[in-house]
Design a protein that fits this description.
The protein is of the alpha/beta class and 306 residues long. The protein is 42% helix and 13% strand. The radius of gyration is 22 Å and the shape is globular. The chain binds zinc ion (ZN). Zinc ion (ZN) binds next to loops. The site of zinc ion has 8 residues, from loops.
């Protein structure tokens, strides 16, 4: 059933069983697979335990939560679905403090839910393949003094300032965007990112920062010279990725206020996930996240350390 608002979603999933049914359908629509040993031979429902299955091969019980981001949590699946809805449909994301209030859970629980959902978004990004066609690449900075940002970026030799986290990103002309943390705006960092994500032989658009020089051997490289105010030269322009940066910064400054450096890539995956699925209905975007949660079991310790 289609739904495109939180109210409609809550009507489609009025109770825990409807959420179990939905997740089972997403995960095992083509046939149930033992979550313990992978067998598909003979699996039957435990009559005494709703939602629990037993595998005739390994003799173990499992539920839809087994081996997923929902495992080892007593949080009702309906709460998970509501959290996933809010995360995928709030364009700037939702903070753990805000989610805790919406769900009536502790901030620690809300943080854990969001961290696991972010992991699912990261898996979705990894599975989505390289960018397609002509690609614009750029870097930006999060944190630091906003009023100095433009000058820092355009004028200093090294770009960026102390206290800022560098992010390198790319957006293809079809609109798909991705980003990851970088250590410096060096040729090494930028070149590695572009080689990994831009399709070989495609046209690459950047500004005239020296970190982007020397890529012409692998792709057709066109440069828009921002430093002299030339934003468009022929087709070369880096304005497309700017709209993705604008969304990321609205989330960073307006919702989260801070991203932990070692978890920055996961936040970037969350923003890319939403961005790349903007054209979908709310319910389709929710399902796209839920399906990537099935192979993302992550313990609290794993989240805190990793
Ligand atoms: Zn089994």
């Amino acid at each position: 059933m289609k739904y495109n608002s939180l109210v409609q979603m809550l009507a489609v999933f009025p109770d825990e069983q409807s959420c179990i049914d939905h997740l089972e359908n997403l995960r095992w629509g083509a046939g149930i697979v033992c979550a313990c040993c992978g067998s598909t031979r003979k699996i039957y429902k435990r009559k005494s335990k709703p939602g629990v299955y037993r595998c005739a091969d390994c003799k173990k019980d499992f539920s839809i939560r087994k081996g997923t981001i929902y495992e080892e949590s007593r949080i009702p699946l309906r709460q998970w679905l509501i959290a996933a809805w809010l995360m995928t449909n709030h364009r700037k994301g939702i903070s753990s403090h805000h989610l805790a209030r919406e769900l009536g859970v502790t901030q620690k629980t809300a943080w854990f839910i969001l961290a696991r959902l972010r992991k699912a978004a990261e898996q979705a990004g990894e599975g989505s393949g390289p960018l397609d066609g002509p690609t614009e690449a750029d870097e930006t900075y999060l944190g630091g003094k906003e009023e100095n940002k433009r000058a820092n970026k355009r004028l200093s030799a090294g770009r960026g300032a102390v206290g800022e986290d560098m992010v390198v990103g790319a957006r293809s002309r079809s609109g798909k965007a991705l980003a990851q943390r970088g250590v410096s705006a060096s040729k090494k960092t930028l070149g590695k990112f572009i080689r990994r994500h831009a399709p070989e032989g495609s046209t690459l658009y950047t500004d005239d920062h020296k970190g982007y020089t020397g890529l012409g051997a692998e792709c057709r490289h066109e440069v828009a010279v921002h430093s002299v105010g030339e934003y468009v030269r022929g087709k070369a322009r880096a304005n497309g990725i700017e709209s993705f940066w604008a969304m990321l910064k609205r989330g960073y400054y307006g919702v989260f206020h801070h991203f932990t450096w070692k978890r920055l890539d996961r936040y970037l995956a969350e923003f890319s996930f939403r961005w790349n699925l903007l054209g979908l209905e709310g319910g389709e975007r929710l399902d796209a996240l839920l399906v990537h949660g099935f192979n993302s079991r992550l313990t609290y310790r794993g989240l805190v350390d990793g």
